[in-house]
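Submission checklist for the structure archive. All mandatory fields must be present; incomplete records are returned to the submitter.

[x] Identifier: Sec-independent protein translocase protein TatB
[x] Organism: Kitasatospora paracochleata
[x] Residue count: 139
[x] Sequence attached
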Amino acid sequence: MFSDIGGLEVVTLAIMAIVIFGPDKLPKLIQDAMGFIRKIRSFADSAKEDIRSELGPDFKDFDFEDLNPKTFVRKQLIGNGDDPLGFKELKDGLDLKSALNGEPAPAAAPAANLAKTAAGSPGAPLSPGERPPFDPDAT
């Protein structure tokens, strides 16, 4: 939450708080703020427990973090450790170092499937300047 505040900003805020509220009222103000935060946190925890108890035993391991859109999408795409969309295979096949050095990428097995014609039979390699066969179903 406050990860973007540096040490100098914290010191500045502390000095400003001492100047504005004074050293005699500052401990009471901090104590009241902490009490308020504890009440809000306990209210949120009790609301979560009420929701879990109302949902029943089917949702006993329901996690409220799953309602975060980023977490939801990540969990639906990647799953629970498995890789249904093949992201791991794609990541393993990507050689970033050779791509950055300008070296040609190694030929992969799926690239051989691109040489097949629309009928499914393997096509002959094209000579330079020759146009590929027209496929009316693909357009």
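[x] Structure attached
Curator remark: The chain has a mean pLDDT of 77. The longest helix spans residues 7-55.
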